[in-house]
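The records we work with from here on pair a chain with its fold. Taken together, the tokens spell out the fold as the letters spell out the chain. The record below shows the convention in full.
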Amino acid sequence: MPAQPRQTTLTSLSLTSLFTASFIFRLTTSFGALCDSAAVNPVVSTPLNLPTSLASRKRFTPSIILDGGTGFLKVGYAAQNFPEFQYPSIVGRPILRSEEKGNDGLVIKDIMCGDEAAAARTMLQISYPMENGIVKKWDDMQHLWDYTFYEKMKVDPTGRKILLTEPPMNPLRNREKMCEVMFERYQFGGVYVAIQAVLALYAQAGLSSGVVVDSGDGVTHIVPVYESVVLNHLTRRLDVAGRDVTRNLIALLLRRGYALNRTADFETVRQIKEKLCYVSYDLELDQRLSEDTTVLVESYTLPDGRVIRVGSERFEAPECLFQPHLVDVEQPGIAEFLFNTIQAADVDVRSSLFKAIVLSGGSSMYPGLPSRLEKELKQLWLTKVLGGNPERLGKFKVRIEDPPRRRHMVFLGGAVLANIMADKENMWISKAEWEEQGAARCLEKLGPR
């Protein structure tokens, strides 16, 4: 492969052993049976090969994996199948300070986080600590982390190791701040920060080359990897993801006469989106069906008991992923962005990338998205490369990996990596290094963003 500037090796670990370990890990866990239920109710699973008694687990404390996304926070331990806890990345404060209990007896506190805030959202002003994958409100983020470690996991972080995830191109100051909080507020003994899209590739065993399309709630990243090397100069960021689809659905429902524009309603509409929305394979056909029939109409019961009917909005809301101008974003759609990214790579690299497109993140879960993506990639190849000659299209090979567990692939990749790194102290930033060498020197250990 020709020399590529600005490349980053995935990690100083042996990638061969990494992918082998990942493959063995997948074989020893029953993903298929757990995926459907895990999408709704996270599975609590015992770390593999770890002692289960409390006393012995104290002697062998597995690393914590914290995958903080714009929409959801997922947390668990190294080598687990799925996150032990998963809940919305939200912080709520009471609208009316006089209320101490909700109608269902739920205690209303001054600050509520995660699933507690989601349960009481009708009585709270909801805040989102992250926007487009980047932490914007650090005080709220720390409230969410406090809730995670002390109320959900019930652990003492002192001296433990933690693997954090971050989006590609995360500002250096944000990476530094994350580590600073982990060492100084929580007294962790070791910290490692990994790029989310790369962890998703770790979880897809056997792949050393491919393109990760990681679409979460706040941002979509397209990250090409060739022979275990991240092509940083080709990494792209699309500022359209799940939250934009939710906002688009709110606007579409408003046109139908349903006003769902309170902060508490946002979570309700997100749930409508996850239950009813899909990506249209043939947009014109679905539009005709929605105009001439009621076959696409579905009913949804709101928390207050009202029933709404959702029709064309089911496919119109996610369409902004392919047509960002619908939500006032001046960027190519996800298919065109992906195509342009691969075509910008060296000629001898492109074939490997087209044959291993890995979908990851909650916003890749829409029914119909993989097939629509494949269809548009082939159409782009036909028009931009073949000049419209369909006879040669048969030679174009594209493969889209859409594993059912992709909602949790970043966490799973982190769990695999942290398990391999368990006895490799030099891979982690230690608290002693942080205090002695300073942030800048320590962050060099993690490599470029």
Observations:
- Residues 369-384 form the longest helix (16 residues).
- The first strand starts at residue 7 and ends at 9.
